[in-house]
Design goal:
By secondary structure, this protein is an alpha/beta fold. It has a single domain, classed as Rossmann fold (3-Layer(aba) Sandwich). The chain is built from seven helices and seven strands; from the N terminus they run βαβββαββαβαααα. The termini are far apart.
Length: 188
């Protein structure tokens, strides 16, 4: 069993924020792979399903970004999973918009959701980094991250989320390189 966590903030006012692209990725995966409707569990929304032959749990913490680790930690302990079963989908300032990279472990790069999970479980979980680009100056980061996607970004974002969901089988199988390559190919 694997636990895939999408990072975001709960509430309609945050729904289209760049910071919520982790939530968006999980929603796309759940839809494409026919996951069960969300249930309120672990201070968040949990959906159960299968990707290929693998049982996957999708969790969207409702604790707000800065406290995501509490929700993730509860789920990991409840299902008696190790951090090797955890994959976190999140926005990444240091990646060009609409690019996707997967990495195992690492730092938090100032991302409060990652920092919270790191505090609860350590740094050795897999991350699916979804690029949102950097606004150019650190004083503009908060507004950029908490800003909504622009109208011109909606179609590329939809294509990106569709590609992530379509290629999720490779992630479930642990073939991160094939996942990244096939997402990039779909996006041309």
């Amino acid at each position: 069993m694997q636990l895939w966590v999408g990072l975001g903030n709960p509430g309609a006012q945050y729904a289209m924020n760049r910071h919520n692209v982790g939530f968006m990725a999980l929603d796309a995966i759940a839809e494409v792979h026919g996951f069960a409707p969300p249930a309120k569990k672990f201070q968040g929304w949990l959906q159960e399903g299968r990707i290929g032959g693998d049982r996957v749990l999708l969790l969207k913490p409702a604790t707000f970004m800065n406290d995501s680790g509490r929700s993730v930690g509860e789920a990991i302990r409840f299902y008696k999973l190790g951090v090797e079963a955890l994959t976190v989908f999140h926005d990444e300032l240091d990646l060009a918009p609409m690019k996707v990279k997967v990495k195992q472990g690492g730092g938090t790069a100032g991302h409060n959701g990652l920092r919270s999970i790191d505090q609860h479980l350590g740094p050795d979980f897999r991350r699916v980094r979804i690029g949102i680009g950097h606004p150019g100056h650190k004083d503009r980061v908060t507004g950029h991250v908490l800003g909504n996607y622009a109208k011109t970004e909606i179609e590329p974002l939809s294509d990106l989320l569709g590609a992530v969901a379509a290629e999720a089988d490779w992630l479930a199988k642990g073939d991160d390189t094939r996942f990244m390559n096939d997402v990039a190919l779909r996006l041309g």
